[in-house]
């Protein structure tokens, strides 16, 4: 039951740091890899276009050369150049022209060529004859990279002949790069993406020690802040405890009892933090009560009791002066309220009383009953539980009493005889996680 569920802050920080760095590195690496791959793909297409331009340029140059050197028409020159170029020329190095078409001023001069030895020649034919396949170009030369039957292809339209001599025509060409060229370029893309991933992860790995060193400093600072916060709580609680009973062990024990009940009820972190602070500071308002009333050994008169009850208001005034201590308000203001509405200062009833105050009321009365005081001997755990049972539904929340009854014996045996230093050390260890929340959000 008493095995700590705490995760030490250093461990938490390192786990969180590693996890977040890993996630960030993975996200960045993937993003950069995708970017690099896309960039390489774009460069691949540009290289293929360059290769295609080179082959197409040779065909066009030869056609123009034939036109310039002879009196043949551009259509005839194109036929001759294409024949010289060859259907399988340099397929193994760069690629091949699988479709070519010459269009002149006269429809009769139109020439069209399709390499039927190419496996996907039908797909190429359907592509170039599809509606609007090459209608989108507005000026020449026009070059576009396309996917035809899942193959990368260059579709181009270029000007042939000499417009000044009224010999202008256009050549529409589909160039398919060699598979080896495409495969090589894709390997380069994958390799580049892999290098980017490797560099990103390596950089993250190199940054980890630096970030860890800075984080360790944050941990040390957080521990110092935590110690200072607990010292503030302990100091304020001790001021009252020393006036009332010469010991602050009651504050530690009652806080431990309350926190164990809070854990059993699965209270959220802010509630557990508020319960811890409220338990420490529940009687802080007693610093404003006169000694003749606070330390009176006998029963208080009605007037004296009315003065004693003002310690709740005084306590609320004290914690209201600190933004950090205001979380203790529910316990400080509600620990003397009773479930049947007969308590003070506001006469709250039932669930109107904050849950943390209802929890603390049970813990407070139980520890007061089982603790030694100058004017009384301690009661046994069983006797104290009997008294709590008598107040079930009147003074105390029945559900909280029932919960505490199941753990009271074990808690009492564990804490009743511990010294103040031991109680303080265990309390700080147990409640650490509730006060490190803000530090965690900085990581």
Automatic annotation (TrEMBL):
Occurrences of domain HD-GYP (ranges): 225-420
TM annotation in the entry: 17-38, 190-211
Any single Pfam family the record assigns to this protein: HD_5
Entry-linked InterPro entries: Cyclic_di-GMP/3'3'-cGAMP_PDE, HD/PDEase_dom, HD_GYP_dom
UniProt keyword list: Membrane, Transmembrane, Transmembrane helix
Top-rank taxon: Bacteria
Entry keyword annotation includes Transmembrane helix: yes
Entry-linked PANTHER family: CYCLIC DI-GMP PHOSPHODIESTERASE TM_0186 (PTHR45228:SF1), CYCLIC DI-GMP PHOSPHODIESTERASE TM_0186-RELATED (PTHR45228)
Name of protein: HD domain-containing protein
Organism listed in the record: Desulfomicrobium apsheronum
Lineage: Bacteria, Pseudomonadati, Thermodesulfobacteriota, Desulfovibrionia, Desulfovibrionales
């Amino acid at each position: 039951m008493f095995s700590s569920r705490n995760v030490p802050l250093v461990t938490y920080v390192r786990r969180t740091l590693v996890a977040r760095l890993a996630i960030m590195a993975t996200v960045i690496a993937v993003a950069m890899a995708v970017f690099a791959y896309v960039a390489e793909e774009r460069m691949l297409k540009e290289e293929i276009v360059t290769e295609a331009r080179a082959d197409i340029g040779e065909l066009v140059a030869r056609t123009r050369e034939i036109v310039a050197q002879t009196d043949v028409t551009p259509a005839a020159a194109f036929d001759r150049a294409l024949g010289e170029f060859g259907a399988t020329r340099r397929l193994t190095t760069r690629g091949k022209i699988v479709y070519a078409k010459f269009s002149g001023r006269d429809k009769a001069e139109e020439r069209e060529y399709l390499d039927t030895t190419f496996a996907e020649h039908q797909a190429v034919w359907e592509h170039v004859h599809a509606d609007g396949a090459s209608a989108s170009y507005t000026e020449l030369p026009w070059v576009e990279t396309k996917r035809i039957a899942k193959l990368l292809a260059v579709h181009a339209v270029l000007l042939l002949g000499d417009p000044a001599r009224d010999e202008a025509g256009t050549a529409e060409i589909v160039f398919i790069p060699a598979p080896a060229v495409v495969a090589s370029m894709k390997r380069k893309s994958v390799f580049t993406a892999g290098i980017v991933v490797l560099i990103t992860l390596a950089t993250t790995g190199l940054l980890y020690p630096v970030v860890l060193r800075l984080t360790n400093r944050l941990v040390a600072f957080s521990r110092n802040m935590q110690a200072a916060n607990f010292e503030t709580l302990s100091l304020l609680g001790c001021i009252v405890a020393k006036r009332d009973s010469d010991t602050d062990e009651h504050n530690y024990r009652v806080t431990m009892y309350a926190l164990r009940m809070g854990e059993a009820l699965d209270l959220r972190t802010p509630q557990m933090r508020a319960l811890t602070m409220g338990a420490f500071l529940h009687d802080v308002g007693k610093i404003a009560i006169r000694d003749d009333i606070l330390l009176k050994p006998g029963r208080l008169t009605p007037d004296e009791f009315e003065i004693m009850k003002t310690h709740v208001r005084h306590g609320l005034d004290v914690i209201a002066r600190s933004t950090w201590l205001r979380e203790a308000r529910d316990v400080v203001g509600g620990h003397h309220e009773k479930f049947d509405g007969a308590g003070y200062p506001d006469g709250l009833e039932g669930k109107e009383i904050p849950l943390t105050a209802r929890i603390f009321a049970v813990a407070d009365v139980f520890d007061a009953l089982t603790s030694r005081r100058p004017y009384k001997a301690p009661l046994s755990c069983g006797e104290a539980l009997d008294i709590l049972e008598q107040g079930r539904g009147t003074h105390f929340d029945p559900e909280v009493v029932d919960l505490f009854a199941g753990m009271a014996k074990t808690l009492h045996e564990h804490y009743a005889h511990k010294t103040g230093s031991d109680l303080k050390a265990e309390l700080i260890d147990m409640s650490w996680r509730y006060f490190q929340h803000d530090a965690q959000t900085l990581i």
